[in-house]
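In the design runs reported in the main text, the only information available to the sequence generator was the tokenized backbone. The following block is the verbatim input for one such run; it is reproduced so that readers can re-run the procedure and compare outputs position by position.
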């Protein structure tokens, strides 16, 4: 008689003999091969996906950097230097920080030299030309009414008309038909029913109706 041995102390062959079960061939090796192949395929797919994603991100980043640099260069070129004196026509600033014309021609330079002499020797046209070198508009020109109000009024009428067309279209194709309670016949019957029920007979609706004469008091 053989001594009893714990099952976990036996090797697989002895386990089969101890239990008396039928030994079956193991299927571990093919399963391991298929699992390894699936893992390899998954790794390749992930590598391809990450590569494509990386290339797409690189392209998008390059496009965005190019567009941002283009926009930055455009903004820099269009931005005015506020640290320098600027010219502006305003009613509250009679003397701007700089003259209207900085770059002068030879004729204008000679006129500016002539300006330093007595103004009695200047003609009316020369005085006007000198004024236009320093100022763009006169006070009369700045106070002159413009036709901008016509554009504003026209825009208001346009949007009001467009809104009316939208409301008209909704009344025809969107809103449901008007309830029958708005019909005059229905309102007359409702009024008669309220009088028959003597609604608010003290100081309200029915108190203003003369039931003996059948008319309003």
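Verbatim output:
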């Amino acid at each position: 008689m053989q001594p009893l041995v714990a099952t976990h102390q036996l090797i697989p062959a002895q386990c089969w003999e101890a239990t008396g079960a039928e030994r079956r061939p193991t299927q571990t090796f093919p399963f391991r091969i298929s699992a390894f192949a699936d893992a390899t395929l998954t790794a390749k797919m992930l590598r391809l996906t990450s590569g494509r994603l990386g290339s797409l991100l690189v392209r998008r980043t390059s496009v965005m950097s190019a567009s941002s640099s283009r926009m930055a260069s455009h903004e820099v070129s269009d931005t005015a230097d506020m640290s320098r004196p600027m010219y502006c026509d305003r009613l509250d600033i009679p003397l701007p920080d700089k003259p209207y014309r900085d770059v002068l021609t030879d004729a204008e330079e000679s006129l500016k030299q002539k300006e330093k002499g007595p103004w009695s020797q200047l003609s009316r046209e020369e005085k006007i030309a000198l004024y236009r070198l320093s100022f763009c508009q006169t006070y009369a020109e700045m106070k002159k009414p413009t036709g901008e109000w016509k554009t504003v009024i026209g825009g208001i009428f346009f949007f009001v008309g467009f809104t009316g067309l939208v409301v008209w279209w909704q009344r025809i194709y969107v809103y449901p038909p008007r309830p029958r309670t708005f019909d005059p016949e229905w309102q007359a019957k409702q009024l008669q029913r309220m009088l028959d029920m003597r609604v608010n007979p003290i100081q309200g609706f029915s108190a203003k109706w003369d039931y003996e004469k059948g008319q309003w008091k």
